[in-house]
Write a structure and sequence with these properties.
The protein is an all-alpha fold and 303 residues long. It contains twelve helices and two strands; from the N terminus they run ααααββαααααααα. It has a single domain, classed as ABC transporter involved in vitamin B12 uptake, BtuC.
Length: 303
């Protein structure tokens, strides 16, 4: 029983990190109704900026806080530039135009980040303990062995997810975001400033990308494969629904727990590597039987 709980909790903590990446997609989708292909590139660009600034400013006072503040400023400037140069000319254009714009932003950020910060693999140490801890020895035989790094990362990600969920549900700006996603023209007609909303949502998505980049970078190293983490967020979005913050949370937990449990308990019978494709098979199942996801809105077109 202790081993099962160890695997389950490990999967749930990984799922919280998946949810964090998926939230960036949800933020943009709720504000524009478009899948943001650039979210993975934003995670990479933010992590690269932070780790390289940390190296440059290592001899200054409070280098980590200073690097974090400058990286936040960079992501805010990036959000303003994207709104002014890319999104503003595409107001009221078809969704495919906005999608192609995010595709262009992704390739630009990949190349721009490599040109400025380099393409090496950088080690990121933010002071999170990496030694595992043994818990619940008095409850389960042998206890439950958990990674301290994963627990801290899951706690940080969980707090951010909760804050963003409250932001969308309880604030005036959150309601405005939902209105903009439903209909750009209608939102503008009632006085909601579309350009202002887009700057806010891309800024928040950039900050989410920064947190995700720091967490994943400390686990895997800051490298260009970080942008591929966005692919793991796709099954999370399909399960939870592209428009739901709660769906991103639940979908991430299901994917994370399902991957670990299937690898441990099904892997010996059907072969290894199930952790790499389990999420996509589950997403395919949902696309066939519930394409809107667990918490997505069901759209009905009447003719």
């Amino acid at each position: 029983m202790g081993f099962f709980i160890e695997v389950l909790v490990g999967g749930l903590m990984a799922g919280v990190l998946y949810s964090l990446v998926a939230l960036g997609f949800v933020l943009i989708f709720k504000a524009s109704g478009v899948f943001n292909f650039a979210q993975g590139a934003m995670v990479l660009f933010a992590a690269l900026s932070f780790v390289r600034l940390l190296d440059i400013l290592k001899d200054t006072f409070a280098p980590m806080l200073l690097s974090l503040a400058i990286t936040i400023a960079i992501m805010i400037v990036l959000a303003i530039a994207i709104e002014r140069l890319v999104l503003r000319p595409l107001v009221n254009q078809p969704g495919i135009s906005l999608f192609m714009a995010t595709l262009g932003i992704a390739y630009f950020l990949d190349g721009f980040g490599q040109a400025i910060w380099g393409s090496d693999i950088y080690t990121l140490d933010v002071g999170i303990p990496k030694d595992p801890v043994l818990l619940f020895e008095s409850v389960f035989e042998g206890g439950v062995l958990l990674s301290t790094e994963d627990m801290v990362a899951a706690l940080v990600a969980g707090v951010l997810v909760a804050v963003l969920a409250l932001f969308f549900q309880r604030t005036r700006i959150g309601r405005a975001l939902r209105a903009v996603a439903d209909d750009h023209q209608a939102a503008q007609s009632v006085g909601i400033p579309l350009n202002y909303i887009w700057v806010i949502v891309w800024t928040v998505a950039g900050l989410v990308a920064l947190v995700a980049g720091i967490i994943w970078g400390s686990k895997l190293g800051v490298q260009f494969s970080l942008s591929l983490i966005a692919l793991k967020a796709l099954p999370v979005l399909i399960l939870g629904g592209f428009e739901s913050v709660l769906g991103a949370i639940v979908g991430g937990l299901i994917i994370g727990a399902g991957e670990k449990l299937s690898e441990v308990y099904l892997g010996p019978y059907i072969g290894g590597g199930i952790e790499n494709w389990f999420a996509y098979v589950l997403a395919l199942f949902f696309l066939l039987f519930r394409p809107q996801g667990l918490f997505g809105e069901k759209h009905i077109d009447r003719v």
